[in-house]
Amino acid sequence: MKLKTQIVLVLILIIALIAAGLAFQQVRAIRTSIAEEMETAGDIGAQVLSRVNEIYQVQGVRPMQRFLTRLGRLRAHDILLVDEFGAALYRTPATDYLSDVSVPVWFERAVSPDETEREFDLANAKLIVRTDGSRATIEGWQQFKNLLLIIAIGSLALSFFAWWLVDRAMRPFTKVNNALRSVGKGDFTVRLPELHGSEANELGQSFNQMTYNVEASMAAYEAEAIAKAQLKKNRELTRVMQRRTEHEHRTLAQELHDELGQHVTAIKSMGVSIARRTENSEKSVADTASQIVASADSIHATIRHMLLHLRPASLDQFGLADAITDLVSDWRTKHPNRIFNLQCAAPPDRLDSDLSTATYRIAQEAITNAVRHSGADTIDVRLNFTSEALQLEIEDNGSGINHQIDLGFGVTGMHERATSVSGQLTIDTGHAGGCRVSFQAPLHL
């Protein structure tokens, strides 16, 4: 059942109760009026008839009969004159006043008082006087019917007015309900107009503010979803590009190792052979051959360094931990005056190749920056694993973060590699006052 119908029914019930109360009070008033009328009329009639009885008591019954006939009907009284044998000599005549009106039994019982009876003795006769409220009851019923008609018309009018008033008061809420249904269907652009009534208008303003906030939130959510999708797409693109770059590095390293390495080895072998053959006969040729051998060794060392930079063989053959160990060992060889501390935990059995490559490249770039720009004499490298994540930390005791934060493509490349594997890279100040590069990424991409 609708709220409007419930309110109207409650108001109609209240009106009906008020109408019933008015009707009940009217019935009580009619009963009191009839009782007072009968009591007053009874006292007056008794006094008159008592006086008449004194006058006609000696003269006999005939003069009393003639008097009552001339008197006619006395209001609220029923007079009966009987002889000594009980035969009726006179009875109050019936009247045509409101004779066609019938009174309901319930109303007659509700308003009619108890009847009283008085007897006066005459010579050879008896005068019986009874109170009669039938006429007053009929008049009371007529009044009550008129009141009922007024109450019915008034109640009907009040009911229609209550319905109109409730309908007018509920119109704003109908608009609010329709707007809520639109919101339930996903239309957050709906707005309510200015509503009638201060409370309804305040509710409408609150609703408009709510829909505006929801619309803004949905727009922000959609923008965030688009940004996340774009970020995921960019991350996948970066991962593909890095895979291709690593593949090119691997191919180039293989070609350098297989092709150029073999030629350099052949050149060195021929130089050694020439130097041995001309060592005693042609000193200048032997010296030139020795220089060729030295150049070949230098080229070989350069190729080895390039291979390590392009794609360390240990990363593919033995895994991340061994590759980082070789990386730190290589730096120790190049910079014996600096301390390189390494703490490397055993990795899981299966470690994603993209994660391994990204971690190795971040460690490679961070150590390179620390050696070249920080002026540190101690560099700590820590690689740990939890059940869910990989943690890499490179910390130095150099001049601090300001010297490394503007390294351009190096730091940008580390961030891109971290993002490509859903990781997080932070650069801050370490415990020794130098720079600390921290990298953390989930093991399961």
Topology at a glance:
Blueprint (H helix, E strand, L loop, with lengths): L2 H54 L4 H11 L5 E7 L4 E4 L13 H7 L5 E6 L2 E7 L2 H51 L13 H80 L5 H28 L2 H5 L2 H15 L4 E6 L8 H22 L3 E8 L3 E8 L12 H12 L3 E6 L5 E8 L3
Parallel strand pairs: 5-6
Antiparallel strand pairs: 1-2, 1-4, 3-4, 6-7, 7-9, 8-9
Helix pairs in contact: 1-4, 4-5, 5-6, 5-10, 8-9, 9-10
Strand content: 5-15%
Shape: rod-shaped
What's the helix-strand series? HHEEHEEHHHHHEHEEHEE
Query: What's the number of structural domains?
Result: 3
The major sheet is characterized as: 5 strands, mixed
Count every beta strand, where a strand is a DSSP E run of 2 or more residues. Answer: 9
Low-confidence stretches: none
Helix fraction by DSSP (H/I, runs of at least 4)? 55-70%
Q: Which whole number gives the mean pLDDT?
A: 79
Give the termini distance in whole angstroms.
56 Å
Radius of gyration: 60 Å
